[in-house]
Structure formats: structure tokens, C-alpha cells
Amino acid sequence: MANVLWIGNARSIAQVDTLTVGGTIETDDIFIITINGKSLSTVGGSATAATVATTIATAFNLVTDPEFAEITAAATSGGALTLTADTAGKPFTATVSTTETGGGSADSQTFATAATTANVSPSDWADTDNWSTGAVPVSTDNVYLDGNSSILYGLAQSSVTLASLTVAQTFTGDIGLPERATTGYNEYRATYLAVSATSLVFGLGKGSGSGRAKIDVGSNQCALTVHGTGGAKDSGLPALLWKGTHASNTAVVRGGSVGIAALATESATLLTLTQDGGTIEMGDGMTVGDITKNAGTLLSVGATTTGSKTLILR
């Protein structure tokens, strides 16, 4: 067990992927690059790999879809071309394939992709330079977040069960990504920090707080306590979005704006929910046992209640 502080100290390095055209190429072979379910299909127009790579790079840079516009393509040597992120520290995922004019399976041409330079970011949970111990947190660690460095990438940590995750009210960065990117596409990167925590304490102490925090504790039991949040950054959504499916999860909300399974298709389970203040929004994928409401605003859109409801007026 270690006490680990988020420091967000990694440098920003742009991701570079190298795509390589090869094999026996025919002039009507089609080379496909796909990002976020959108595909660019380019007819090579040549039997020479280097010429095809240049043709693909030129076509890529003319695409106006924002997922593509975040990346610059350049032919290098032979049949190779590179895709380079325009923003250092912001990762992308591009896949490649080939087909024949008129459809059908590709024959002897090849199109391969390999990571040349990995994305490095001060907003990446999985980067060791972003942690006070020089190591990414592991199960049984106690993790503390404060400061203003957001956590946006490397969010797939579901194999880790922290002893505790404490987010101070002095933490003003974001945790997770919005569902829709600011440039106008539905986000294809992970939007929730997926990490289990036996104890999750949010908004502890004084400060302006985080306006976007999205945490998925998965199927392991969690005790959630919310003291406060920042003002919500995403229109129509609470500042803290939480979900977890263990039958014995508990939540105590004393302040801030909290959404539990607030987005469509999400699910969450609580054995008990106690509200001493703030605003809670429960989505229709939530199942809750006993509810004790002492103060605050409780909004429910189709949530299932299996236990008692107690309203105490003060």
C-alpha cells in the first residue's frame, strides 16, 4: 500500500503512427484509414508503393472531418507515411485495411500500421511521470488528487482496486472527457475514469472544485462520499458523474451536483443513499435501496427504488 499524489508532471509529446503500403500493388487497389468509425478510402492509382503513400497522405490532409483534421499525414520514404497528432499529448486511434475496386477481399497488397512515437501527456493516468511515487497506482494504494492538472487519457484502470481515492475540492481539473468533443464529434476515446475504489471521497476541503468528473468504479464495492463539486461544465449534466454496479454500494451526498447513472444506457446500484445537501440526478438505469433525504434536491428519471424512502424536513 502506498500513498500516491497526482502531480501531472509528464511532458507533452505528439503521437506518431507509421503506415506502410506494401505487397504486390495494382493501380485500382483501395487503401482505407478509419478513425471513429469514419473511413477514408483512397484508390492508389499506381503500382509503386511510394507513389501510393503520397497519394494517401494528400487525400488524408484534405479530409475535413474533425477526427482527421486533428492529425497531419506526410509521405516519408518508400511506401511509408506518417500520421502525427497536431496537439502534443492528445492521442488518436487510426486503423487501416485494404479492399479491391468493386469490393471483395484484398489480394496481394498490404497496408500496415505501427506506433512510431507514443503519446505522452501530463493528463495521462497511465504515465508514471504524473505520479509522486514515479509509479502508476496499483490495487490497495491510496490516491489523492488536487491542483489543476486534468486526467483525460489512460483511463482504462478497471483492473485496479484502490483502497481509497480522495479528490480534494482544490482539484479544479477535469476527470474524463465530455461525451462530445469541442470540435464537434462524438468522443471515441474513453470518457470515464474506470477504476475501483473501496472508498471514494470527492470535494473534500475548501476550493472551487472540479466541474467535470466522470468515475466508473465497476463491479467492486464502493462507499461514495461527496462533500462538494465545482460548477458543472457540461450543459445539462451534473459536475460529478458516478456509476458502479455492486449491490452493496453506498453514497452520502452533502453538497455539489451529482449524477448517478445519469446518461442513457448507464446503470448503477446503491444499497443506501443519504442526501444532506446538493443536487442528485438519478437516471433510469439506477437501482437504489433505502433513501434518506435530509436536505437538497433529488431528481429521479425512472430510477428503481427497492427499499424505504425517508424525507426529513428541517
Helix count, DSSP H or I runs of 4 or more residues: 2
**Which sequence of SSEs, written as H and E, runs from N to C?**
EEEEHHEEEEEEEEEEEEEEEE
Q: Level of helix content?
A: under 10%
Q: Tell me the number of strands.
A: 20
Lateral arrangement of strands in the main beta sheet:
11-12-14-16-17-15-13
Residue ranges: pLDDT <50 for 5 or more in a row? none
| Residue-averaged pLDDT | 95
Largest sheet: 7 strands, parallel, barrel
Strand portion, in percent? 35-45%
Q: Based on helices, strands and strand pairing, what is the structural class?
A: mainly beta
The gyration radius over C-alpha positions equals 23 Å
* Count of discrete structural domains: 2
Shape: elongated
Distance between the termini: 42 Å
Question: Please, could you describe this protein's structure?
Answer:
This protein is elongated. The strands form three sheets. A seven-stranded parallel β-barrel has the order 11-12-14-16-17-15-13. It has helices at residues 49-62, 66-69; strands at residues 3-5, 16-23, 29-35, 38-43, 71-75, 80-85, 95-100, 109-117, 142-145, 156-168, 193-204, 213-216, 223-226, 240-243, 250-253, 257-260, 268-282, 286-300, 304-305, 309-311. The chain has 314 residues and is mostly beta strands.
